[in-house]
Amino acid sequence: MSRFKKRRGLKRYYKSLLTANDFEKVTWLDLDNVETWRKNWHHHFDWYGYGDNSFKKRKPHLDKLFRHFELFIDRTKNLDQSFQLYAVLLDFDSSSDALFLHTPNQDNNQFPFKVSDLQATTTLKNSRLNDFLNSLNGYEKLYGQAGEAFCLLFRKNIGQPF
Fold it and tell me: Using an 8 Å Cβ cutoff, are 106 and 38 in contact?
């Protein structure tokens, strides 16, 4: 008997990544209320880290993240406050890949959010992730190192700049 539990329903899980809209299900993400503030609110798309050891398993999660990035662009068009919208992808830690929304807030005076020591040249060692990022159109990319190499992505003219 194997000591590893067989994961059931993965075929259905990966199929749902193609179409599911995570933002339809949440009630706490009220973008119409200007009193609501977000301190680096973020959403992960690979909670279980399926893509940590296989880019084939990571790519559907990345596709979903960037589909939600575009959905968020549409939802923030009518946002009546300053904000930053960005994604952070780690070199080999798929479960940490996330989409962020940041606004002025009561707890954090760091708005707009700034990250020092970022560069336009990749710091990633994951060649498959680099290839994926290079295939993206319309995103600005900044790279850094904080324990693990990462890439911060944003769109020009969407929210406050970095």
Answer: no
